[in-house]
Design the sequence.
């Protein structure tokens, strides 16, 4: 194969991969890091649920000051995931009360 042909093949592969979205595992890993940096608390009154979306889960417990940030990042990650034509959906369950446990917002036990 000539150098020109190899270059053309490489260019085609690069363009094809540019349209590939991130995998479910990649977006979940990034989102988990965002949530981990956004769920610090001193009291349960600081905690709220932030909407996420498939494939990141229905919602996550975060500090109220970080809610908009987490929801914006979730939307961006979902868009990255859907670039390649992927999508998903699922039904969400009722949410339990929020707690601040060991300095982190989290869902408590359902009543």
Sequence:
């Amino acid at each position: 194969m000539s150098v020109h042909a190899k270059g053309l093949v490489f260019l085609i592969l690069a363009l094809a991969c540019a349209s590939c979205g991130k995998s479910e595992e990649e977006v979940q890993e990034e989102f988990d890091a965002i949530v981990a940096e956004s769920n610090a608390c001193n009291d349960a009154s600081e905690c709220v649920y932030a909407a996420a979306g498939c494939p990141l889960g229905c919602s996550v417990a975060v500090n109220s000051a970080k809610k908009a940030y987490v929801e914006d990042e979730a939307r961006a990650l979902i868009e990255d995931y859907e670039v390649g034509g992927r999508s998903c959906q699922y039904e969400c369950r009722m949410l339990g009360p929020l707690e601040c446990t060991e300095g982190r917002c989290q869902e408590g036990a359902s009543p």
